[in-house]
Structures are given as structure tokens and as C-alpha cells.
Automatic annotation (TrEMBL):
InterPro entries: DUF3667 (IPR022134). The chain crosses the membrane at residues 82-104, 273-293, 305-328, 348-365, 377-400. This is DUF3667 domain-containing protein. It comes from the Bacteria. The keyword Transmembrane applies.
């Protein structure tokens, strides 16, 4: 009654109806003015863009710990205090893939840093300590012969072979510096370059000229011609195939910089198409639920809500797994005693995902355990193959990025 009297005499600025609360019961317009202080505008902007408000406190804990709770609350009409299913799934999807992308980039960067450590070590002391120009040339030749012997073994990886050429060039530069210091003429500039590798030797010992190897892989992929597809689709598929071929060639046969750039392009491409692909997978999962629970006489929208909450949980689960693994890797060299409990926590989190989905299916559809287990198995099996196909499509599109 107090609320009604506090709005007496007020009328909606939009339709003129008498106000009985903060929102007009005729047109829904708020009584509050849009001319607000700056901090209120910033709060509304953050809530609109990031979808973060007080409801997140009531949504995330039950989403993670109470299987099917949010879905049953939504079906019962108690929806105001929780984040809407699609908004919840959308934000968690983008956030989880973003964090997972950062983790993958970090791992690749760490691996690349480890691979940048020299695999080939040379002793330039003999060249730098030589007393005469003849001794400089002799010491240089001895070191170059050692590098050539290492190359002739045929067991060095390509990275090590590249490093032998770099080491040889550095030895020649130091030899020239020593020759100049001794007052002798330096070696010709042409000899400073690393000698071209005549062959690339594989683990079986069969030599194949590098030029022939590149020539065999430089050809573009064949044009795609599918009779029942329009020409524009065939042209698009052809362009994707050619870009995929170029990226793959850069990874396998390009220099280290081009290979790293191609890998990063493909990874960015994969993570760029994963969210749209998952948005397609959600209604397909709802179709599976509709087919397996056709006799429960539920609307497709009900199955879609189940699918949205299920995927929201999976994205939250992926986010927590990624953060926990990153935290464990960071903490391990600083506090080794935390490795054991964190490993157990990771195992529990991994096992919780299938248990959660099973309990959710049991709680929402209210069937006996034998039928629930049977349908859970078949739904999971079908969805596994759909997801595998979707991930292969994402990988193919990522390679063609």
C-alpha cells in the first residue's frame, strides 16, 4: 500500500497512464530518467555488454553443483533471480574458449622457447685464440669439418640442421674478425653464407634433394568441382582448399618464422569458428533429446532449455579445468607439495562432468534408472559423433584460415 501511495499523481511520460510502480503497467516504460550520473551509465553498460549482474551469484553455484536445478526452476516459472539460459551459455562459451585459447598459446610459446635452445654447440675459442692467419683458417676448417660430419650422420632433426648452418656462418664471421685483428685479409663475403644443404635426410637414410621436395609440395590443390553445387560454392571451396594447402606447406616445409605464423593462423582460425559451431550443436542436441524422449510429450523449447543449461555447464567446466591446470603448472615449481591435491582435484572435476549430465537427465525427465542410463548412453554416443564431425569441420576451417 505504501508503494501505491508513493506513486500517486505520477503519470507515465510515454502513454500518460497512472503509475503504480517503477514501470508503467500499460507500456512498460520505466519512471526513471535516462539522464543519470556517469557511474550509473557505466554500470548499465557493463551489465549490457558483459551480462554481469547480481544474478550471477545465484546462477553459477547451482549450475556447477546442482544438476538440473536451474532447468527445473526455469520450468517452474522462477526465472527472475537467475541469468537467462541463452545469455548464460553465450557468455560462458566465449569466456571458456577465450581462456582455453590463451592457455594453448601459452603452451605453444613455452614449447617454442624450449626449442629455441641451441641443439648444436661449437667451440669458437680455437678460432679466436689463433696466433697466425694460417692457424685461424686451420681452426675454422676443423670446426666446419666437425659440423659437416654431424650433418652427414643423417640423424639430426631439421631444426638441428638449420642450426649447423647458422653456427657455420657465425664461425666464419669470427674467423674474419680474427683475421682482421691479425692484419690479414678477410675471407670473401660469398664464403660467409652457409653452404646450401644438398639433401634433406630422413630417418630411413634415404636422401631427397630439398629443391625436389619443395617442388613436389608447392603445387596448388586441385579445383573443387561438385556438379550439384553452384559455381560460387565450388570457387569458395577451391579457395579454402588452396589456403589449407599453403598453410600446411608453410608448417611442414617453411622456415621457422613462416611455420610459426602458419600454426598461429590455423589455431586462431579454429578458435574463431568454434563458438558458431557450438551454437549449431546446441539445437541439434535438443533434437536428439526430443527424439529419445518423444513419448514424454514435452515441447521442443523444453529440450532446448535443457540443452542450453547442459552446454552452459560444460563451458563452465572447461573454464575451470583450464584455469586449474594453468594454476597447477604455475604453482608446481613454487610449491611442489600442492601437486598431489591439485591432481586429485583435476580428476574429480573430470569425473564430475558425465556424472552431472546423467543426474541432470534423471532429474529433468524423471524416468527410472535403467531407462535413464540407456538413453544417456545413446544420446551421448550420437552427440559424440556429431561433436567429432563439428570439431573436424572446425579444424578444416582453421587450417584454411
Amino acid at each position: 500500500m505504501k508503494q501505491l501511495t508513493s506513486y500517486e499523481g505520477l503519470h507515465c511520460a510515454n502513454c500518460g497512464a497512472s503509475m503504480q510502480g517503477e514501470f508503467c503497467h500499460e507500456c512498460g516504460q520505466s519512471i526513471h530518467s535516462v539522464l543519470q550520473p556517469m557511474h550509473h551509465m557505466l554500470e548499465e553498460t557493463v551489465e549490457t555488454v558483459l551480462h554481469i549482474d547480481g544474478r550471477i551469484v545465484h546462477t553459477l553455484p547451482p549450475l556447477l553443483l546442482k544438476p538440473g536445478f536451474l532447468t527445473m526452476e526455469y520450468f517452474s516459472g522462477r526465472r527472475v533471480r537467475y541469468i537467462a539460459p541463452f545469455r548464460l551459455m553465450f557468455v560462458l562459451c566465449l569466456l571458456s574458449f577465450f581462456v582455453f585459447h590463451l592457455a594453448v598459446d601459452h603452451q605453444l610459446t613455452a614449447k617454442a622457447s624450449a626449442s629455441n635452445h641451441p641443439l648444436v654447440h661449437v667451440n669458437s675459442g680455437a678460432v679466436e685464440d689463433a696466433a697466425t692467419p694460417a692457424d685461424v683458417r686451420k681452426a675454422l676448417q676443423d670446426e666446419l669439418n666437425g659440423l659437416q660430419s654431424a650433418r652427414d650422420t643423417g640423424v639430426l632433426p631439421q631444426v638441428a640442421l638449420d642450426q649447423t648452418h647458422i653456427a657455420a656462418r657465425e664461425l666464419r664471421q669470427k674467423a674474419n674478425e680474427r683475421l682482421i685483428a691479425l692484419g690479414a685479409a678477410p675471407m670473401p663475403a660469398a664464403s660467409l653464407a652457409a653452404p646450401p644443404a644438398a639433401a634433406t635426410v630422413n630417418v630411413t637414410g634415404d636422401a631427397k634433394p630439398r629443391g625436389a621436395l619443395r617442388k613436389a609440395t608447392e603445387g596448388e590443390s586441385k579445383p573443387v568441382q561438385i556438379a550439384w553445387l553452384p559455381d560460387v560454392v565450388n570457387a569458395r571451396l577451391t579457395a579454402l582448399g588452396q589456403q589449407m594447402h599453403r598453410n600446411w606447406r608453410a608448417v611442414k616445409h617453411g622456415d621457422p618464422v613462416a611455420s610459426a605464423e602458419a600454426k598461429q593462423r590455423m589455431i586462431n582460425g579454429v578458435f574463431g569458428v568454434l563458438p558458431p559451431i557450438m551454437f549449431v550443436m546446441i539445437p541439434m542436441f535438443a533434437v536428439l533429446l526430443k527424439l529419445f524422449y518423444v513419448f514424454r510429450r514435452r515441447l521442443y523449447m523444453e529440450h532446448l532449455i535443457v540443452a542450453l543449461h547442459s552446454h552452459a555447464f560444460l563451458f563452465l567446466w572447461l573454464l575451470l579445468c583450464t584455469l586449474l591446470a594453468a594454476f597447477a603448472n604455475w604453482l608446481e615449481p613454487r610449491a611442489l607439495w600442492t601437486t598431489y591435491p591439485l591432481n586429485w582435484l583435476e580428476r574429480i572435476l573430470v569425473l564430475w562432468a558425465p556424472i552431472y549430465l546423467l543426474l541432470m537427465q534423471k532429474r529433468v525427465y524423471r524416468q527410472g534408472w535403467p531407462m535413464t542410463l540407456l538413453k544417456f548412453w545413446f544420446v551421448g554416443w550420437c552427440y559424440f559423433w556429431l561433436l567429432a564431425i563439428a570439431l573436424m569441420v572446425a579444424a578444416a576451417l582453421g587450417m584454411a584460415h
